[in-house]
Model the fold of this input.
Amino acid sequence: MSIRHGLLALLERGPRYGSQLRTEFESRTGSTWPLNVGQVYTTLARLERDGLVAPGGEDTAGHTLYAITETGRHELRGWYERPVDRANPPRDELAIKLAMAVGAPGVNIRAVIQSQRHATVQAMQDYTRLKAQALAAIESGRGSERDDIAWLLVLEQLIFQTEAEARWLDHCESRLVRLSARGDLAPVEAEPPEGRPAADPTTASATTTPTTTPTDRPLPRTARMRRG
Done:
């Protein structure tokens, strides 16, 4: 998420101060990407340096307000219109972990994959349950409809992302088993430690009803922030 452009988008709705921007940013995204005030003010300083925002006076409590400039509006319009650049994809810890685990001494890569698949499916179920809550909030008219719709879109992106991750993990496991059978890779154990069964990613489809989240399992960040 571009914090720079996210703040510009919020300022387009009117002047705001730093902690107000942080609160609205987190509300709009369901606290999926939490910010601290230091990040906000550092970004505002850079935006001001680049002529995209300017100080807009103070509110009644003495907070310094920031307002978007015409140059900032132009930059924001361009951001909305440009496709997201994939030339430099963000680092993915899971991909790095599996890449490093290939051939690592003493590492059962199949167990690593199955452990991650289990966590991924659980997260998918949590996101799906939260999606149902967001839809119910929108239909009932509770809270800020704009924020609930924005949060719903974020949740659906997370659902699709975890579904894709589960499929990719299945692919990785199959690929490694085939390469191992051909002798191109050290033997891959057929079963994870203690015979732990693989999770079935189809049980957490975005179109199905998720299972109840156990109380002893940590919820994803979004679930913790918006629970109840």
